[in-house]
């Protein structure tokens, strides 16, 4: 039986014993409700007060039965409360230690600064795509909402703008950081602290104010996302390209992890034509776009005869397994 159900059972049992005792004294001894209640509580709690009124023989037998059942119920209740406290404490301690061990083993992960509504949406997408990550949230009242995001959620309740908390999140060996706190100032401090600890990591930050973007980029952000701008573009797209928007929404909502993925061309395939890799035959992925490493220019629907160069980035729709296979091919050949 769960501890919470046991506590409810104890409360019902104690209330029932007190009610039966009070009614019993009223029927047997013809006492008032208050005197009957007082005598019942005195008998159960064993405080040692004298009888309210002299007891009849039947009243004494009833008192003996009340003491036995009442004190038994009281002892059971104390045991249940103790178990509830100890079990809850032990479970929380075990979960905390387990999470600390998992955090200590993190490497090449993503640090999500902010566990509010935006941060939880980021976390859900990372969970769906099976990316290792940890969430940092300063408000302890949001802890339960963060835990409910998924099994094995890793998080820290602390201030993401401080180096100490970022160090606990292993920013030094992280792949990237997402700053999505509700304040531009907090996001700025977080990315500056993170950039100092890990200058090579990719940092993506949320911008609240319309003029915050340039400052965040100057401070070290690799990309700045304006919620107002993205929302406006989404509204326009939903009007003029409804089917495309529905497709992208379905891609994000469906249980699978099929996403528009990207892979960077490695030295092993530099100089080869796209057709030589046989990506569609080997992985089922069609490359629909390419970003040139030298010019950063995007090429849509690249020709199969396109010769790959160092730093080129290939893009296509793939699930987690297809993405891993694609990465392996463009890295190892």
Describe this structure in words.
The structure is a single chain. The strands form two sheets. Strands 3-2-1-4-5-6 form a six-stranded parallel β-sheet, with helices on both faces. It is of the alpha/beta class. The chain is 54% helix and 14% strand. It has helices at residues 3-29, 33-45, 57-104, 117-128, 143-147, 163-168, 184-197, 213-218, 227-240, 242-253, 274-277, 279-283, 320-332, and strands at residues 110-113, 133-137, 155-157, 176-179, 202-207, 223-226, 259-264, 287-291, 298-300, 313-318. β1 (110-113), α4 (117-128) and β2 (133-137) form a beta-alpha-beta unit. It is built from 13 helices and ten strands. It has three domains: 3-93, Orthogonal Bundle (Helix Hairpins), CATH 1.10.287.70; 106-232, NAD(P)-binding Rossmann-like Domain (Rossmann fold); 258-332, 2-Layer Sandwich (Alpha-Beta Plaits), CATH 3.30.70.1450. The longest helix has 48 residues, at 57-104. α9 (227-240) packs across α10 (242-253). The mean pLDDT is 88.
What's the CATH topology label of the largest domain?
A: Rossmann fold
Share of residues in helices: 40-55%
How many H/I helices?
13
Structural class of the secondary elements?
Answer: alpha/beta
Q: Count the strands?
A: 10
Main β sheet profile: 6 strands, parallel
Relevant CATH superfamily of the largest domain? NAD(P)-binding Rossmann-like Domain
Strand arrangement within the widest β-sheet reads 3-2-1-4-5-6
Return the CATH architecture of the largest domain.
Answer: 3-Layer(aba) Sandwich
Total number of domains: 3
| Distance separating the two termini | 57 Å
N-to-C SSE string, H for helix and E for strand: HHHEHEHEHEHEHEHHEHHEEEH
Report the radius of gyration as a whole number of Å: 32 Å
Give the DSSP E fraction (strand runs of 2 or more residues): 5-15%
Low-pLDDT stretches? none
